[in-house]
Amino acid sequence: MAKQSSLFNFFTKSPPAVGKSKPSPSPAEADLPSSVQKSNTSPKEEAKQAAKQAAKLDKKTPAKPKKPSSKSGINKLFGNKTHSNGKDSSPPCNFNAGALVWAKLEGHPWWPCMVVPQPLSGQQMRGKGREQRIHVHFFDEPPTRGWISTKYVRDYQGSDSTDAKAGGVFFSGKPVIRQGMVLADSAMALSTEEKLKIPLCTDPSDDEEEMGEEEEEEEEMEVDKSSQSEEAAGESEEKVEEGKKSGRRRPSRRAAEKGQKPKRRRIVVASDSEDSGDEFKPEQADGSSEEEDDDDEGASSGVDEEEEEEGEEEEGSEPETEPDSPVKPVKRKRPAEKAEKPPAKSSKAMAPSEGPKRTGPPASVSSDTKSKLSAFSAPDSFESTNSTGGADGGVTVWDHEKLDWLAEGRRKDSRRRRESEEDYDPTTIYVPEDFLNRCTPGMRRWWELKATMLDTVIFYKVGKFYELYHMDAVIGVNELGFTFMKGTWAHSGFPEIGFGRFSDVLVQKGYKVARVEQTETPEMMEARCKKMLRPTKFDRVVRREVCRILTRGTQTYSVLDGSPAESQAKYLLSVKERSEGGEGSAGVGHTHTYGVCFVDTSVGRFHVGQFRDDRHCSRLRTLLAHHAPAQLLFEKGNTSAETRKILKGTGAMQDGLNATSQFWDAQKTLKALAEADYFQETDKNEEDTKDGNTASLLPTTLKSMTSETDALCLTPKEGYELALSALGGCIFYLKKCLVDQELLSMANFEEYMPVDVEMEQSGGPSSFFAKTRQRMVLDGVTLANLEILQNSASGGVEGTLLERLDTCCTPFGKRLLKQWLCAPLCNPASISDRLDALEDLMAAPAQVQEVMELLKKLPDLERLLSKIHSLGMPLKGSDHPDSRAVMYEEVVYSKRKIADFLAALEGFKAMREIVSVMAAAAKEFRSKLLRQVVVQRAEEDDDNCADASEGKGLFPDLSGELKRWDTAFDHQKARSTGVITPKTGFDPEYDAALAGVKECDRQLQDFLERQKKRLGCRTLAYWGTGRNRYQMEVPDSVSERNIPEEYEVRSTKKGWKRYSTKEIERWFSELQRWEEKRDAALKDCMRRLFYNFDKNYKDWQTAVECMAVLDVLLSLSQYSQAGDGPMARPEVLLPGDNQGDPSLPFLDLRGSRHPCVTKTFFGDDFIPNDISIGCAGAEEDAEGQGGKEGAMCVLVTGPNMGGKSTLMRQCGLMVILAQLGCYVPAESLRFTPVDRVFTRLGASDRIMAGESTFFVELSETASILLHGTRHSLVLLDELGRGTATYDGTAIASAVVRELAEKIRCRTLFSTHYHSLVEDYSHQPSVRLGHMACMVENECEDPSQETITFLYKFIGGACPKSYGFNAARLASLPEAVIQSGHRKAKEFEKSTVTLRIFKKLCAFAEDASAGLDQFSALVEMIGTL
Fold this sequence. Notes:
Layout: H1 4-7, H2 43-60, H3 70-77, E1 100-103, E2 111-115, E3 125-126, E4 133-138, E5 144-149, E6 153-155, H4 175-188, H5 192-196, H6 206-221, H7 230-245, H8 250-257, H9 289-295, H10 305-315, H11 362-374, H12 433-438, H13 441-452, E7 456-462, E8 465-469, H14 470-480, E9 491-495, H15 499-508, E10 512-518, H16 522-531, E11 544-550, E12 571-580, E13 591-600, E14 605-613, H17 618-626, E15 629-635, H18 641-649, E16 653-657, H19 666-676, H20 680-684, H21 700-703, H22 721-736, H23 740-744, E17 749-751, H24 755-761, H25 765-770, H26 780-785, H27 801-805, H28 811-822, H29 828-842, H30 845-856, H31 861-872, H32 874-879, H33 890-922, H34 928-934, H35 959-966, H36 971-977, H37 988-1015, E18 1021-1023, E19 1031-1035, E20 1048-1053, E21 1056-1060, H38 1062-1083, H39 1085-1094, H40 1097-1121, E22 1131-1132, E23 1147-1152, E24 1169-1173, E25 1193-1197, H41 1204-1220, E26 1228-1231, E27 1237-1240, H42 1253-1267, E28 1273-1277, H43 1285-1303, E29 1306-1310, H44 1314-1319, E30 1326-1336, E31 1346-1355, H45 1363-1369, H46 1374-1405, H47 1411-1423
Parallel strand pairs: 7-10, 12-15, 14-17, 15-16, 22-26, 25-29, 25-30, 27-28, 28-29
Antiparallel strand pairs: 1-2, 1-6, 2-4, 3-4, 4-5, 7-8, 8-9, 10-11, 12-13, 13-14, 18-19, 19-21, 20-21, 23-24, 23-26, 30-31
Helix pairs in contact: 2-11, 3-7, 9-10, 19-22, 28-40, 29-40, 30-33, 31-33, 31-39, 31-40, 33-36, 34-40, 37-38, 46-47
């Protein structure tokens, strides 16, 4: 590949990819992208089987004499391919020049590419069959190119395709690959000619330069086969043998001929880090594991040792580092790439893993060489690989599949309850004792762990590798692309450094992963056994403990786990329910009471609350929409059928916990919090520390949930029993996952209260809107119908309001924007202050641009603070199994910790720069909110922030702390070495130890000086190392009579004697004691450093919150300036400020456009519309609508596809944007605040919850009628269409009457029931409006009609819905349309007749009726 030398540093650890023989895939796998059948035998076994098979064939069928050429001998040496027949050849490649594809070099990740001709020769394809290659251009900077095997080429569907996202085949978090995807996406919009004009790399690659030389050499080596003798052939084969034994390669010989030093190829185990230097040693792969287990019971690993060693070698190559650029790491000749399967010469089928059969001695050597090298091939992707194998090609039945007690239907849980029993626990399994006694010590420990967590994949540490056994190994092969190791029991693994990569893949796919570490060394194990009276073989194995269980909802992204793939929060939600009232679930008065606790484990913030809910569980649905859970916890047998349906619909992982023992009640939760000392360290940092009573340790939020009469805080307060029980279930699960201490010790608790509960407690709408902290209610239905967070098509963010607004530069800013979007403001003063902030920012473009550049440099500081807190915890350091774990990549992890810490420091420095940049402009800011977040807090305000509401700065002064940390240690040295050596004055313990060491050394030197004078010997000096230090070397020239009596001889050498004294020993003992303290302080220095940093957590967190607010305000200001048309500042008034009726809410929207739609479906500009509710609007006309200025309900009619639903969504999004404190795409907007937006849009069922389309419609409508207030905004689209016409019309009419006359809230009600329109045409509380259209050639034949949609909202009713126009656009058969039109005429005639009859009867009964009514009746009769 071109430019290889410039990018070669990315691949210093990548192994050379070696091809394996690949049989045809089975029918089940034929459709997979890279289906590769893999045997469960090792490459060495395959080589031996191939040799035996070849020997048998030699005996049965003598090989025909053939005169091999020198070229064939060399080809045998390098494993040349056998020519395949037509059946084995690969299908031709279907990609043309300019096609965008995913491509990969063997052993490297997928990369976005474009198929292009070779720029020097114009060649696009080369090779045939399995050797066929295609020339591609890699989207990289600088651009690179290369030849790729066609089997590693896939169609490119864009970066937003499922396969390119997290968990997909082509997903990668590497920045260079993400950048390549951006370049590929930009190229997708180009034509083929434009694509081929993209600048390519024109430098010849290494293999292209040498191709000519190779061909010339091969031609020179060609000898006429007919003239070559048997003797010459024998000599040729002997030379080949010698070449193999000496390990030479053709490039080395060529280099030797040129006088150059032969290149050596170092093969290294692939890993995710450059610090892993484990070399592959093939000679260690021999031996029997069973023999070693029998011979040596004291082996440190305790598992089948030889198989472990070979497994480490084989599987060490599997997890390969994703490189940063698609460049070949090592030059390789094409003849050695892939060996093909030859035609079968025997009736007995060859094993799928066997290579081509050869005759003669070279066959076994070649197979063995290829087998060893094949251990380094990496999986093409995380696709399922074939788990079948065996010599006969049949399905392998693993040992664990033969166990009766493990078979489905025969299992028992840990308490020996069968699957048919009610209390059966599927997460545990009973393992018979006699089976455990037959296991090796290490395998016994594995089964003991598996018995307690059957539903968890165990990553079991053996040496430097994590091993997967039995059913876990099958998952590893299927989900992670591992290869089975040899043997009858399923077994696979990977190096320690790859834990973060592989565990995250499994967790994202819904698995639970347990990390099991060795918590003692072999030496510690031997010392433990010596203390035992009679240690058994099960004792003579290193101790292993579970150090962490990872699930979707409990990821903390530690140094082992790696970095998160997305910025949005993932919540662990615990739910406790109590049903009340009504008869059964369908009772009218049936209500629910929920206790909830949800936590974002990456940040450590807990939300605890309890609330009553209606029979539709509206508040629970809203909670699930605002804080979408990744994992749910519930008490078994506690949740109702309705709740189970709702929880199931979230798609989150669900775990049922046993009552009391696992899902604690409130009393047990409070007792556990008091006994566990979770908040002890937190309380030490508080100035108001009490007398040590455990009650004072509880955070304020939790303390408020306990009874005031219980001084010990062990009794729950009434109304919080379920909330504390939900917290107990959450704590139990976090404790099970071993992250409870690090999360709870942060004491970051908030009370969760639904927004509509706050509204009920406020005592009325006026006081509700006047409160600063009150929020608009957006329930789950509204968020889904208006597509605020997710679109309805794919569930992604494309086309949503969140995507339109989100230009945040920081991850914590993105999370805050989502919170703001789910709960817009209600207080007009607060809304106006945010709008002032946007105007202030728009008035300072230079500062804004500089600030945005600085914000982009900030890491996810909110999560980093949580990580630093976890790393600095003293309690976790002593009690957690991780503190005892033996990690072989400790230096790598230390470097990661230091890198994270330094990244946090750099981030806070950037924050100070932001504050200094904004300082000059801040004086002119009108917004109190903006001044608070960008102005530094004065020292006198540190303890009293009551004046923050006046606009004083809240940003803490970090300069002192940052300066202190700058001088604490050498940052660059720590980053490179992974060790922190604190400077003097920073760490008192370390300083005291250093001072002690210096003092002891000074005393020893002073003693030496005194002895020099005493003996009169200037050459007197100390000698020794380690524990033999400080022995005085005295030359023999000093007389024995001068040697003091207290001198004791320690050692001698020719011409010298070495002495020690009591004083030397005393000071040396003291020196050793101080050195031990120094070493211990240095070892614990990093933890103490993080702990000291975490002491100022409140200041760091406040700074992060200020920057998050600034980031969101910048994002909103960018949207307010980037509109495609006029953007208006909304005017929000309190209900009493309306110039008309001071008590009525209103909405006056002029020239509005949809916030997320800038173009129509046909590419035209979006047509603006006016919407007025509760005030005089622009859509009144002469049809009697002029006197309905106060009407709160607008009936919207219009043709199908005329834009009614878009108009209603547009109105809802405008109100949300305005109360968010953002400019809106309109000419003007005046309105009173909306307390809640209700929607009933679209038609869909919930088939998994057993709810029909009509039932869903009525459920959403019921929620509106139950919870709607006069300050709500209701958007109802075509209610009643899911049932019979008369039923639907009747229900719709009743709902309109309820909304317009009783609730009197602002309502847009679209309908196609024209009888409904006629009924309310003269009602003063209802106004009519419709989406205008232009009809041409309206006649009896609907096929002649031409309807043009005007997409303009005007007053009055639309006469028809023009459904047949939609039928024609949908391509219904013309005969069907004509038949339907005739039937429609009949229906219309009968309806008009019935209407005339009703009016005629009314006229006859009305004595006051006059001529006008009679004339109207005559006219209607005439129309018939």
